[in-house]
Model the fold of this input.
Amino acid sequence: EDYLSYLESGYCIPAHSENVANRMTSVALSLTVVNNVSTSLFYTTLRQGSDNVG
Done:
């Protein structure tokens, strides 16, 4: 029982920080995806516009 409580107290903080790191990573990844999508959409509309002009 003492060993279990030791494990729980030992793994509480790392699990929490790991959770925060995972959340930050997923947020950064989603931001990167959104950035890439909006950039590609921007270039696609530019290309379409130049095609229409040409």
About this structure: The radius of gyration is 23 Å. The chain has one domain: 1-54. The mean pLDDT is 79.
